[in-house]
Write a structure and sequence with these properties.
- It contains six helices and 54 strands.
- A hairpin with a 2-residue loop joins strand 29 and strand 30.
Length: 986
């Protein structure tokens, strides 16, 4: 059995095996393949045909031989255009041109060889089929035409993912992607086959807790999204994979340069009527690529930069005009409202070299660096917020990613690819004030003013990834084996938390009277403060193993089946979970169970075995129809931020809170470190001993048919069932140091827990937040798709999705701390419509060459509003969950209101680009661009809270324009002007 003391030995053993192995295997995400059948003119299969596949841009070749059934497969192909040559004694040599391989694709290219007596050679030019008859999984691929022409406001590749079915975006500041009804915490982003997910934050390398581009759009070759049904090669994701391939150089020197500009004169007022006086965006960059040695070695370099300024508006939930706060030198509370300038500077540098070190071995080295410097960040990512500038922050996010891979062809049937990745990401976060934070529950988002309680923070998250893949072709089978190892470190980190204290008031009236003030502050058993920080590193390790077979029993039938094993090995808290005197708390591990000593470690998850099966069938046997289906188990990774990693600078295992130290009264500033006093209540966090990563069973069925030349229609059905979903942990509340309820009220709600008067079962401690895997979810969706590939001056993709998303699990961090389970003793009562539920969604994108040098492109999203939470301002059962402690309200008919009973207003957005291209002769082409974002200037209000029993507080979803809520806003209509130079031209 694995134990944590063996983790170092296991890592060293795996490292040795990986570096010395040629038969270990892992996921290859950044390539494609070509497959097909060779026949004679009578339709009979031709075994022994030598098929040579040549990449036209670099001269790379693959040579394979057809099997006894005439089938061939050329795997591990870089994306791009290809020429196929087929030769067999007695037959004419056939050359097939016009074949394009996209990321993750497997176009079926059948070859018909005439007898040599008829002709010696024949060349056929044909387009790649639009229907992929060998694919069992639902996917969306955006080619270079889409990437270079679609109007993407932020030049962030993740925006392209939103053009795929079953993909939505968390509307909070982190803007994580959600695939197939799954939480954004459990998706996977891969760039050039390397995992770009930050395992601590469950976000993306280079943009932790923000949305910004992390790699130059000039460096992106293709973009693919896989949802619900990917095979055993892919792991650590419960719903989908974003798969990005970067550009490489070629035998032709290519270069580009661009600049975009927009400012206040080109943008409308926001939906609340606030003018865009401080708004300005300048984006600029360039790229160049070409040969180092023709057909041998190539280079590509690119950079992207952005300078942005904008405004955030402070607007409190209640009228605070005329209220003086002399203790903090504030003459009028209302003076704190209004516009605050905010800005950010982004830069990313990219370099890649590809080198054919031998005829059958290609080495690729890629480095990407990005830096984000942001001022007056709100930590909530909203346009209108009930908090003052002093509660904001400044930060820098800096990340470097190094990836190298070696692809090897061993004869005509064996292929191997080895990858190594090292990532170093840093994100220091600075406070804007030295005043204690003042929170007024009915007036502010969190802090009305003063230092944000969780600042300052310093974080560094290095990462090492090793994987290798080996595949072997025999008969009708393509068998792969694989291993993938990730080591993730939390290093040089501190999260002081309440270093200046946080004074808490329930109401504005209490604040004015100086009554009922509570103080939150934090102490540590290994005392440190902002100038004396000593923390230990914290590691997690992830292992993935898989075996996968792609079997083609007939030319029109492909079967994928395999199994994947995953394990997550977690570190433990560096500090004991105990009282200052060493007493171990005694708590329940689940509602209704006996109380036992709290676990002192964090559970590993090592029992994740994921079988998967997929099939694709061409019933018409003409390459124009595919019936596909897949089913399998998928496991997510749990981000380290949800664990109590006390002593590692993030979350102490035990924190000491109110009452204030002796002699400290509002508005005194408490010391950042105080000695624990006898009897001081200790709040602590722990992980349930039976904790597991989320497990999802997914089923996908679909059919696609080519209805016209290069145009297809399709329908897909997705069903997923989630178990072991997270309840509790960071930003969640699942308190196990409470009494069982004594009964129910007249509406059926549990009451009598009442920790405020009854105290706690273990009176030496305060709350005991448990990270559990007691949640579950269900997701159903039907998608209708129409697509046209790029031919005859245009391409088009549109899809409509109906879906239903239900769960009882905690919402993501962006969605808010108060959207979890409100009844700790009946988690099933929270099951119902989830915060992610969007029942209707229509997305389209297209590009048209209208002639005279003009190209018009656009994209649009029309969808139902998100579900909005309903809560009460009163702690009905006295369990102390939340501040204020929220519970389920009751409607006018006496029925308990569901967790998410209503939808916010519908969302719609259309973006447009018009581009005019002029030739510059041998100097290339120049593009003049006009872009219009949010053409119809839709407000797109969104919030996460709907409080029933506070007069006038209906949330933005119910009362757009009200001054009683925070508001996530769609971007006001904005025009952008741009120019781009491309060499060579068209």
């Amino acid at each position: 059995m694995y134990t944590k003391s063996h983790s170092g030995k296991l890592f060293i053993t795996l490292l040795v095996l990986l570096l010395g192995a040629t038969t270990a295997l892992a996921q290859v995400l950044d390539r494609g393949e070509i497959t097909g059948t060779a026949r004679d003119e009578t339709g009979a299969a031709l075994p022994g045909v030598t098929v040579t596949v040549t990449h036209l841009e670099t001269g790379l070749t693959r040579v394979v031989v057809t099997n006894a059934s005439g089938q061939y497969r050329a795997p591990l192909l870089p994306v791009g255009p290809y020429r196929i040559e087929a030769a067999l004694a007695g037959f004419a040599t056939l050359t097939r041109e016009g074949v394009v391989v996209t990321v993750g694709s497997a176009p079926v290219i059948d070859l018909t060889l005439p007898l040599a007596s008829v002709t010696e050679a024949i060349t056929v030019t044909a387009e790649t089929p639009i229907v992929e008859t060998s694919r069992a999984v639902t996917s969306t691929t955006l080619n270079q035409e889409a990437i270079s022409t679609l109007p993407i406001s932020g030049r962030d590749f993740r925006d392209f993912a939103l053009l795929a079915p079953s993909v939505q975006q968390n509307e909070g500041l982190r803007a994580s992607l959600r695939f197939g009804g799954q939480s954004g915490d459990y998706g996977l982003v891969a760039v050039d086959g390397a995992d770009q997910t930050n395992a601590f934050f469950a976000e993306y390398t280079g943009s932790a807790e923000t949305q910004n581009f992390t790699i130059s759009q000039e460096a992106i070759q293709e973009f693919q999204v896989l949802t619900n049904g990917f095979n055993a090669e892919f792991g650590r994701s419960t719903g989908g994979v974003v798969n990005v391939v970067t550009k490489s150089g070629s035998n032709e020197t290519r270069a580009s340069g661009f600049g975009f500009f927009r400012d206040s004169a080109l943008r409308a007022d926001d939906p609340f009527g606030n003018p865009s006086t401080d708004f300005s965006v300048q984006q600029f960059g360039a790229s160049i690529g070409g040969p180092i040695a023709e057909d041998k070695a190539f280079y590509f370099f690119a950079f992207d930069a952005e300078n942005r300024s904008d405004s955030v508006f402070t607007q409190y939930r209640r009228d605070v005009s005329g209220i003086a706060i002399p203790e903090f030198g504030i003459a009028d509370f209302g003076d704190l409202e209004g516009a605050v300038s905010a800005g950010r500077d982004l830069i990313t540098l990219f370099g890649r070299v590809d080198w054919d070190v031998a005829d059958d071995h290609r080495l690729t080295v890629r480095v990407n660096y990005n830096k984000n410097e942001t001022t007056n960040f709100t930590a909530r990512g909203v346009g209108v917020i009930a908090a003052h500038e002093s509660n904001f922050e400044d930060f820098t996010n800096e990340a470097t990613s190094f990836v190298t891979s070696l692809t090897s062809v061993i004869g005509t049937r064996a292929f191997n690819e080895f990858k190594f990745q090292y990532v170093d990401e840093k994100r220091p976060r600075e406070a804007k004030s030295d005043l204690p934070e003042v929170q007024i529950a009915d007036t502010c988002t969190a802090g009305c003013f003063g230092r944000e309680f969780f600042l300052p923070i310093n974080g560094r998250t290095p990462k090492i990834q090793l994987y290798d893949s080996f595949s072997y072709l025999f008969g009708n089978h393509d068998v792969k084996f694989g291993v993938d190892w990730n080591s993730n470190e939390l290093s040089d980190n501190f999260f002081i938390g309440w270093a200046r204290g946080s004074w808490l008031f329930n109401t504005l009236e209490d604040f004015q009277a100086g009554q009922n003030a509570l103080l939150n502050f934090r102490t540590f058993f290994d005392p440190f403060n902002e100038t004396n920080i000593e923390v230990d590193d914290y590691w997690t390790h992830e292992l993935g193993l898989f075996i996968q077979d792609k079997w083609q029993p007939a030319p029109n039938l492909t079967v994928n089946y395999g199994v994947r094993y995953e394990a997550q090995y977690n570190g433990d808290p560096k500090n004991p979970i105990s009282a200052p005197d060493g007493t171990i708390p005694v708590v329940r591990q689940a509602p209704g169970t006996e109380r036992i000593p709290v676990p002192q470690d964090i559970a590993n998850d090592t029992n994740n075995i994921a079988p998967r099966f997929g099939v694709s069938w061409d019933p018409t046997n003409d390459g124009r129809t595919v019936v596909r289906g897949s089913a399998g188990l998928y496991f997510g990774r749990t981000a380290s931020i949800f664990f109590p990693t006390g002593g590692s600078g993030v979350r102490d295992s035990v924190s000491l809170f109110a009452p204030p130290p002796a002699g400290v009264e509002y508005p005194d500033l408490p010391l950042s470190v105080v000695e624990p006093q006898p009897g001081t209540p200790a709040a602590f966090s722990f992980v349930a001993s039976e904790f597991n990563n989320p497990r999802v069973f997914s089923l996908n069925l679909g059919v696609e048919r080519e209805v016209a030349e290069n145009t297809s229609v399709g329908v897909d059905f997705i069903y997923s069932r989630t178990e072991n979903a997270r309840i509790g942990g960071f930003n969640g509340q699942f308190d196990m140091n409470t009494f069982e309820p004594t009964g129910v009220d007249e509406f059926g709600r549990n009451v009598g827990v009442d920790v405020f008067t009854r105290g706690r079962p273990d009176p030496q401690f305060f709350s005991a937040d448990m990270l559990s895997s007691l949640g579950r979810g269900r997701y159903k969706a039907v998608t209708f798709t129409v697509k046209k590939s790029f031919t005859r001056r245009g391409q088009f993709l549109a899809h409509y999705t109906w879906s239903k998303d239900e769960s009882n699990a905690d919402a993501e961090r962006d969605a808010g701390v108060n959207l979890g389970v409100d009844n700790l003793f009946d988690v099933e009562s929270a099951f119902g419509i989830d915060e992610r539920d969007i029942p209707h969604r229509l997305v389209f994108q297209g590009t048209v060459d209208v002639g005279a040098g003009f190209t018009v492109s656009g994209l649009g999203t029309f969808r139902a509003g998100r579900a909005i939470a309903a809560q009460t301002f009163t702690d009905v059962n006295g369990d102390g969950v939340g501040f204020p402690p929220f519970d389920r309200p009751v409607d006018a008919n006496g029925n308990i209101v569901p967790r998410f009973p209503e939808n916010q207003p519908n969302f719609y957005n259309v973006d447009l680009r018009v581009m005019w291209t002029a030739g510059l002769g041998t100097a290339g082409d120049i593009d003049l661009l006009f872009e219009l974002f949010n053409v119809f200037n839709s407000g797109n209000f969104s919030t996460t809270l709907f409080v029933f029993d506070v007069p006038g507080y209906g949330g933005c979803g119910a009362n757009p324009g009200a001054s009683t809520c925070d508001a996530f806003l769609g971007t006001p209509r904005a025009a952008q002007l741009g120019v781009k130079w491309r060499f060579p031209g068209n």
